[in-house]
Amino acid sequence: MKRLHRFALAVSLVALGSFMAAGRNGSAEERAPAWSPDGAFLAYMCRQGVAAPDLDFEICVMNADGSAITILTNNTVADGTPTWSPDGTKIVFNRLVGGLQQLFVMNAADGFGQTQLTTTPGLNLFASFGEIKAGR
Q: 24 falls in which pLDDT band (50, 70, 90)?
């Protein structure tokens, strides 16, 4: 078991290096990376050319080696905490709507099909795809 943990740590450090290298200039900022289920992509919060404290983050995806950055969302509100669906076809994330954080889902490949999932008051953050099994 220790060997498996060391391997996972090494892979994570390589990915983190690629992730950090992707922000090649001082005007870009990346946060909250999430691996795709197949390990080929990273989804993350991104913003470019925006000075703090502006929190207008978008959701971006890049190849695991740091290449081919794609901005999936493009608006004037904060989008954050992307999480992949188990099959890698969708990304769930949170977005500021009317002063409240709500959960949305979109196609991972192109950002189309953005659909609001929650309308409840409060903070709807850190979504995670899960599975409910009946009869247990």
A: very low
**How many structural domains are present in the chain?**
1
Chain-centre distance for alpha carbon 24: 19
Cα→Cα distances 87→11, 25, 84, 113, Å: 21, 33, 8, 16
Asked if residues 116 and 103 have their Cβ atoms less than 8 Å apart, the reply is yes
| Residue range of the domain that includes 33 | 2-116
List phi, psi (to 5°) of 59: -105, 125
CB 41 within 8 A of CB 62: yes
Beta pairing partners, 44 = 60
pTM: 0.76
